Amino acid sequence: MVWTQCAKPRPFAARRLVCFPHAGGSPYFFQAWAKELTDFEVHSVCYPGRAERMSEPPATDIRSMTGPIADSVEELLSDGRPTDFFGHSMGAAIAYEVAVALEERGHSLGHFFASGARAPQLMEPDAAAETTWDDEAVTETLVELGGTDTELLRNPAFVDMVMPYIRADFRMLASYGPERHVRLSCAVTALLGETDPRVSPRQADAWRESTRGPFRMRTVPGGHFYLAEDPPFAVLAASAAEAG
User: Fold this and answer.
1) Using CA atoms, how far apart are residues 26 and 20, in angstroms rounded to an integer?
2) Tens digit of each residue's pLDDT (9 = 90 or more) over 176-224
């Protein structure tokens, strides 16, 4: 099983960026980022059940993926390059768990970017996630959040292909709550679309309680999927420049 992918290897880049996709997302979402982020070697995490892992059953628990993803990232860290995490929505929760696991192994990140996500300590498991998140609820939420072509959602063949892993992701996120709240040692930046219907500024700002390092809160134009139209390249590049 391959947990991380790198569309454009850049062995002499100063930094590495590991991207964690949203619920229903795949590594393809970040494929073009390497063209703009020339100071980074960009890697993307691939969850089971999609992209090149379509034949595998989707994951049902965030923590079940934590160890394997941490193992994969730990191999990357062996070259000593500073490594940053960028997680969007569900991806931020998964990235947080992986970052905690890596710190427990003695590794530290350069920077952690939490995009469009509530802070982990605010997330509580929903015991009714299996029934709450049926196909109708998932489709309604996809339309509300944007980021998915509504015409595709009317295509039965497309829905049959993607709904199993999107539904599993929504249920997995709804069932998530951190076993314990651990403060990361690295700098954390929270990014939030100003019209995000699912995450409030207070919920995003609460990421400050998840780090012992510097914290910044950035509000950007757009909704939950602001990064589809306007990726936060400037924020990422500025962070790299500050770190030297």
Assistant:
1) 9
2) 998 888 999 999 999 999 999 999 999 999 999 999 999 999 999 999 9
Of 185, 152, 187, the C-alpha closest to 166 is: 152
Place of tokens 């949203």: 22
4: which 2 tokens? 């991380």
Query: Which residue bears the tokens 């960028």?
Result: 86
The domain ranges of the chain are 4-123+181-243
- Among 89, 115, 175, 210, the active-site one is 89
Residue corresponding to tokens 């595709």: 152
Please check whether the domain covering 4-123+181-243 is classified as CATH 3.40.250.10: no
Q: pTM for the full model?
A: 0.94
- Sequence-separated contacts (24+) of 6-11 with Cβ below 8 Å: 6/41, 6/42, 6/43, 6/44, 7/31, 7/34, 7/42, 7/44, 8/34, 8/35, 8/41, 8/42, 9/41, 10/34, 10/38, 10/40, 10/41, 10/42, 11/41
Q: How far is it, in rounded angstroms, from Cα 51 to Cα 93?
A: 21
115 is catalytic: no
Number of H helices, E strands in the chain: 9, 7
